[in-house]
C-alpha cells in the first residue's frame, strides 16, 4: 500500500477528496497508519497530492466524519482507535461433528409471525431489511431509460415478450458475468422474475419433494421458505462468517447421510453472515460436489456490493461440468422495484427453460431493455462504486455505534460488503424478546430465529445497513443497545 | 330484437353506421331477417334512422364487406346466405363412457418441437397464437399511464413493491369481478406474474406430484405443460364446443377412478373450443365438485372477449364454500406484454399467498398502477367493446373463408367470442402434416396434437383470429384450404 496515495482509481467519478480518503482509509485498515499515528498536516497534504487547501480540508473532515480520524486542538488530525475493534467476531462454528439430520422446514409460521408483527408498526424504523434506501439507487436514470424505451416502442406493452428474456439484456448480463469469472453466452442466460424465482426453478430442476438439500446455517429465511413450499428437506451445514460454508462439515454430512441431492450456497456476502468464501474454498466446494454427484445452486445477488480491491469470483467460475446452476438478480444492486433476476443452469438448462416457461412465461420486456441500456454504460460502474462506498460507510458507522452502545459480550463480524450486520447478543438473550421490545420502541430488526430451522441462532439479530446514517438511526441503535442491556439484566435476575 | 334498430348502445364510441350495422347483424343472426330477404333501401334507411345518405351507404357497404349482405345490380342489398353455415359443427364427444385413465403428461416434447419448427420460419404469417394484434389494444393510453405513473413516483423502480399486489389494482380487479358475478374484497386478490403463474400456484396449493387432476379435452397446451412440470397426472374429460366440460363424463370418471384431487376448467371461451358453459352447467359443476371434495381451479382469461348481450358469469359465482380458485389475467384482454394475472384462492388463500411469496415475490408496481388507472375508467369498457367487435368480425370472416376454401367434411363451431377457431380436418387428415406444409408456404397454425395428451385431436387445427382481416390473410386461408385438399387427395391415394 502506497501511503502517499497518489494513484487515484482510474475510472472514478468521485470527487478528488473522496478518492484520496479511500486511499488513506485503506492505509489505516491494513495497518500502514496505526491508531494514534499523526495524519500529515493540511499543508503537507496539499503538497503531496497537488491539491487545493479546500480539498485537503475536505479530505480530513470526511475521514473525521467517518470516524477514522480525530481532531486534537492545535495538534491536527490523528488516527482514531476504531470503536468496533472492541467487538469480538461472531463465534466460529464447530466443524468436526456431523450436522443435524435433514428435516422438513417449518419456518413459514415463524417468518409470517415476525412479518405480521412488524407490519403492525408501520411507522417503525425498518432495520430488518437487506435492501438499500432508494437514494442509493439511480432512480432518475432508470426512470428515463424506461420512459425512453416505452416512447420508442410502446407496443412492447401490447405484444408478447421474448422467450427466455430480452436478447440485449441477456447480452449485457453475459458480458458483466465475465467480471465474476463466468464465461457464458447470452443464450445461456434465462431471465426470471427476481432471483427468488431462479432459486425455485433451480431447486425444482435438480430435486423432488422429500429430497434433502444442504444449506448454509444460518441462511436467508427466503430460501428456507422455498424449501418448505417445495416440500424438500433442509440439511443445515455450519457456516463461518469469514470463510463461508464448512467444507469439512459438508463432507462429514455426505459421509453420514449420503442422500444429499443439492447444496444451495451464497458464496459472496452470505446472508446473514456477510462471508465471502476464499477462492481456494470455492474451488474445493465445486470439486467436492462434482465428485459426489451433488448439484450446486449458487445464489449470488450481493456480489456487486463487495468493497474489495479484487472483485470476488463466482463459484460458477470453477464449474467444469455444468454442475453449478448460477442465480443472481438486480434486486439489491440496481433496482429493488424491478423484478429482474436471471440464471444459467449448466446441464439443467433445457429443463429449467421448460420449467420457467410453464411457471410464469417471459418477463416484461421494457424493464429488461431499460436495465440493459443502463448496464451497458460506465454509469452502472459509477453507480456500483458509489453504492459500495455508501454501504461501507454505513456498515462501519453502525458497527461503531453497536460497539459503543451494546453491553459487553456482544459479538459482530464486519463483512467486506453488503447491507447487513449479523450481531450475536450476549448471554444467549432471545432475540425475539429484543425484537418485540424494539418494535414497541419504533425499531424493526430481524430476529435470528428466522435464519435457521433450528434454534441455534435465536440469540442473533440481523441489522440492515441500507439507510444513510442519521441522528435518528444513531438514536435507534443506542436505544437497541440499551434495551439489550435492560433485557439482559432482567433475564439475569 | 327490434329490427328498426333505433336503440344504439348508450356508451358507444363507435361511428353511427357501425352501431346500426350491429343491430342489423343481430337481426340477421336471430333470424328476424333471413337469407334472401331484401334489405330496406338506402332512402328507407335514411328516413327510419334519421341519418345522412352517406351513413346509410356506409351501413350497407359495411354489412356487405362483412359478408352479411350482397348487392344485386339494380335491385339493392339482400341478406346473404352465410358461407360458414355450410360448415357443420365439430362432432360432440361421447359422454357415456368413462374417460381414459389419468396419465402423466408427456406433451413438452411435442409442444417444443412445434414451437421450434415454427421459429425456423420467422417470416411466416402467425395464425398459431391466441392473442390479438397490437392494434387491437390501447397501446397509447397504456403507455401514457405508465409514463405518468413513473414521472410521479420514480422510486417505484427502486423500492420493493406491495405484498400480494398494488392496493389500487386489487381494488379495481375486485370491482370489475362483480361483472362476472364474483363478490370478493380487494384483500382476496393476489396479483401474479400472468395467469399461468396463478394456475401453477393453484395446482400446487391443492395437489401434489403424482396426484390426478381432471382437465378438459381438448385443452390449452400450456396447462398440460404445467401438469407435466409439476409431475401431476392429467385425466382428460370430454368437452363439448357448445356446453363445455361434460359433467356426465366427469361423474363417471369420479365413480370409476375416485382419486381426482382437482379439476381445471376454462368455463368461458374455452381454449381451443371456444365453449361457454351455460349457467345451469356451471352451477352443477360447482356443486358436483363440492359434493365430491374435488378442488376447482377456474382459469378465466378470455371472459371479457365474449360477444353476448348478457356477459357470461364466472364459475366462481356459484362458489359457496371457497372450493373454487379463480385465476385470470389481462394478457388477452388488455395488454399481452404486461405480465398481469391474479387469483382469489378461496379456502386456500393463505397457502397460495405463502406459495406466491416463496416463488416469485410481488409483481412490479408501475404496471399494476398503470393498468388500474386505465381499468378504473370507462375507457376500458370502450376498449373491450371495440375489441369484441373486431374479433367478431375477424372470426366470422375467417370462418367464411374456411367454409369457402376447405374441402367438404371440414367442420368448425363458431364460438361466441375469443380469438380462435377450432377446425376439424376432413378424413382424419393428420394436422402435423398440414402444419409442416403450411409452414413451408409461410403460414403458421397450431396443430391439434398440442391440445391433448392423447392422439384424439391430431386431425384438428386451431386458427388464431387476432389479426385484422387482410388480402394477405385471405390468401393464406385459401392456401391452407388448398393444401388440405391436396394432402387429403395424397392420403386417399
TrEMBL record, chains A, B:
A Pfam family this chain is assigned to: Aminotran_1_2
InterPro entries: Aminotransferase_I/II_large (IPR004839), HTH_trans_reg/aminotransferase (IPR051446), PyrdxlP-dep_Trfase (IPR015424), PyrdxlP-dep_Trfase_major (IPR015421), PyrdxlP-dep_Trfase_small (IPR015422), Tscrpt_reg_HTH_GntR (IPR000524), WH-like_DNA-bd_sf (IPR036388), WH_DNA-bd_sf (IPR036390)
Domain of life of the native organism: Bacteria
Similarity field: In the C-terminal section; belongs to the class-I pyridoxal-phosphate-dependent aminotransferase family.
Annotated HTH gntR-type domain residues: 14-82
Molecular-function annotations in GO: DNA binding; DNA-binding transcription factor activity; pyridoxal phosphate binding
Keyword set, alphabetical order: DNA-binding, Pyridoxal phosphate, Transcription, Transcription regulation
Name of the molecule in the record: DNA-binding transcriptional MocR family regulator
CDD domains referenced in this protein's UniProt entry, alphabetically: AAT_like, WHTH_GntR
Keyword Transcription: yes
Amino acid at each position: 500500500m502506497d501511503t502517499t496515495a497518489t494513484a487515484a482509481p482510474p475510472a472514478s467519478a468521485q470527487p478528488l477528496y473522496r478518492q484520496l480518503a479511500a486511499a488513506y482509509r485503506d492505509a489505516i485498515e491494513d495497518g500502514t497508519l496505526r491508531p494514534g499515528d499523526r495524519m500529515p498536516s493540511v499543508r503537507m497534504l496539499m503538497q503531496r497530492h497537488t491539491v487545493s487547501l479546500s480539498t485537503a480540508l475536505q479530505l480530513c473532515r470526511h475521514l473525521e466524519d467517518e470516524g477514522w480520524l480525530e481532531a486534537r486542538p492545535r495538534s491536527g488530525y490523528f488516527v482514531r482507535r476504531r470503536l468496533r475493534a472492541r467487538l469480538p467476531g461472531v463465534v466460529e462454528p464447530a466443524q468436526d461433528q456431523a450436522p443435524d439430520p435433514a428435516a422438513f422446514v417449518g419456518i413459514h409460521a415463524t417468518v409470517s409471525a415476525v412479518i405480521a408483527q412488524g407490519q403492525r408498526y408501520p411507522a417503525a424504523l425498518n432495520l430488518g431489511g437487506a435492501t438499500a434506501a432508494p437514494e442509493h439507487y439511480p432512480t432518475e436514470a432508470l426512470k428515463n431509460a424506461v420512459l425512453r424505451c416505452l416512447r420508442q416502442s410502446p407496443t412492447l406493452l401490447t405484444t408478447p415478450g421474448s422467450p427466455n428474456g430480452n436478447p440485449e439484456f441477456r447480452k449485457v448480463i453475459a458480458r458483466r458475468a465475465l467480471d465474476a469469472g463466468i464465461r457464458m453466452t447470452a443464450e445461456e442466460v434465462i431471465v426470471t422474475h427476481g432471483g427468488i424465482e431462479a432459486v425455485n426453478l433451480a431447486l425444482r430442476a435438480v430435486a423432488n419433494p422429500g429430497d434433502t438439500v444442504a444449506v448454509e446455517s444460518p441462511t436467508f429465511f427466503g430460501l428456507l421458505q422455498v424449501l418448505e413450499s417445495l416440500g424438500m428437506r433442509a440439511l443445515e451445514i455450519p457456516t463461518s462468517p469469514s470463510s463461508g460454508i464448512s467444507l469439512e462439515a459438508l463432507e462429514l454430512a455426505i459421509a453420514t447421510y449420503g442422500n444429499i441431492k443439492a447444496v444451495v450456497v451464497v458464496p459472496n456476502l452470505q446472508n446473514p453472515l456477510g462471508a465471502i468464501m476464499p477462492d481456494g474454498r470455492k474451488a474445493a466446494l465445486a470439486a467436492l460436489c462434482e465428485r459426489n454427484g451433488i448439484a450446486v445452486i449458487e445464489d449470488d445477488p450481493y456480489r456487486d456490493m463487495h468493497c474489495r480491491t479484487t472483485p470476488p469470483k463466482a463459484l460458477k467460475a470453477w464449474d467444469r461440468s455444468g454442475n453449478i446452476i448460477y442465480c443472481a438478480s438486480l434486486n439489491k444492486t440496481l433496482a429493488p422495484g424491478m423484478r429482474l433476476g436471471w440464471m444459467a443452469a449448466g446441464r439443467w438448462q433445457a429443463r429449467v427453460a421448460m420449467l420457467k416457461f410453464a411457471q410464469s412465461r417471459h418477463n416484461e420486456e421494457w424493464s429488461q431493455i431499460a436495465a440493459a441500456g443502463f448496464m451497458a454504460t460506465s454509469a452502472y460502474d459509477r453507480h456500483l462504486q458509489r453504492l459500495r462506498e455508501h454501504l461501507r460507510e454505513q456498515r462501519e458507522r453502525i458497527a461503531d455505534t453497536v460497539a459503543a452502545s451494546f453491553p459487553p459480550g456482544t459479538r459482530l463480524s464486519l463483512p467486506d460488503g453488503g447491507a447487513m450486520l449479523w450481531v450475536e447478543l450476549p448471554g444467549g438473550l432471545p432475540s425475539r424478546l429484543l425484537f418485540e421490545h424494539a418494535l414497541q420502541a419504533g425499531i424493526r430488526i430481524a430476529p435470528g430465529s428466522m435464519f435457521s430451522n433450528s434454534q441455534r441462532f435465536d440469540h442473533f439479530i440481523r441489522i440492515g445497513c441500507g439507510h444513510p446514517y442519521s441522528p435518528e438511526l444513531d438514536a435507534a441503535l443506542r436505544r437497541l443497545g440499551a434495551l439489550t442491556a435492560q433485557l439482559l439484566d432482567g433475564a439475569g435476575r
